[in-house]
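Handout, section 3.2

Students often ask what a structure token actually looks like in practice. Rather than define it abstractly, here is a full record for Major facilitator superfamily (MFS) profile domain-containing protein. The first block is the sequence as you would receive it.
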Amino acid sequence: MEAHLSKQQERSAVRKSLKYSIKDGVAFAATTGFGDNYINPFAVALGASAFQIGLLSAASQFFPSLAQLKVADLAERFGSRKKVIVRFVFIHAIMLLPMAMIPYLPEYMRVYALIGFCTLYVSFASFAGPAWGSLMANLVPERKRGAFFSMRGRLISLVTVASSFLAGYLLQFFKKHALFGFTVIFLIAMISRYISWYFLCRMYEPPLEVKREHYFSTGEFLRRLNAGNFGRFVIFHSCFSFAVFIASPFFPVFMLRDLGFSYITYTIVTTSVPLASILAVSYWGRRADALGNRQIIWICSLVISVLPAMWLISRQVYFLIIIQILAGMFWAGFNLCSSNFIYDSVIPEKRTRCIAYFNIFNGFSICAGNLLGGFLATHIPPLFGYRLITLFAVSSLLRILASTLLLKRVKEIRKMDVNMA
């Protein structure tokens, strides 16, 4: 917790912290571009089966979700959200080192080593996530959240695109020694995460007193899940995530294994998503500030629901780029407004705990989707010669059901200015 500051000193500290947050986001975007975006392609390069890739994605959600049970307690025990953030981000960065060394293990160990190290990597990041969300919601005024997070998201997307292209180029450059190429990009990702950690260390944490009456257990949250508006949003988002992650881990598999894309072609297709989000996120930020977050979530979720089914129409690179551009545009709105909806829905004293509980349910749903997708990927009847195409169609149908049946039970939290709308 920071020492008591005057109002003027606090305003100055907040402004500096928001600038540090942008720099942290840019550095973390490079970690995403060089590291996170290439975990599934790394699994493919190691010879992982569809089931193993489903297991990789499932384990990377299940154990971090369990960890969320203690996140809020840690923040209260440390007496500081910032302490939780910087300590676990530091360890998060370390985990990229053993992942980079996997190519030098015996061949029979590599895939399961990746599953283990990747699970730890995501778990340590998950400890920092709720505390970071709670801290940022305190630093950014409610009326400016759409504008600030869309601007920050635009820069993050730009750096993610640039770093992903560079990572794809490096993998193509080391094509004859592809596994060494993965070592290089994961080490770059680790350095980027430590740069991110440096800026997080310099941020200011506003005082926040969490009293006993602000505590509620997971069981209490579960019992009230269907009663409150935030609980109904958790149900919708978790079901939507389940539908999304039935298919999500298998798009890289389909492109690299079934369609035979080179790393450069794969990179061009996948980076269309963050590139499109750069153009769209500021628009969604303005519209959310005017119309409310729920309305934007509804529009974006409907479009996102249709996109996997579009892979049935054509597998030509140019058509897939169009699909990815649409995905980038509408996922930008969905993710931005989902985060802001959570920030708006709970008071600051309960925010870390609510974000953690949201992550638990969402993570378990993603895990279940991954496991079901891994099973269906090898058992479902093929469409147009591909089982994964059938899987994409199933994901699309379930997304539509979640968007149309569950989101209508969620109400807008933010009081809208009629003149703005």
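Discussion prompt for tutorial groups: The CA atoms of residues 144 and 289 lie 8 Å apart. How would you have guessed this from the sequence alone?
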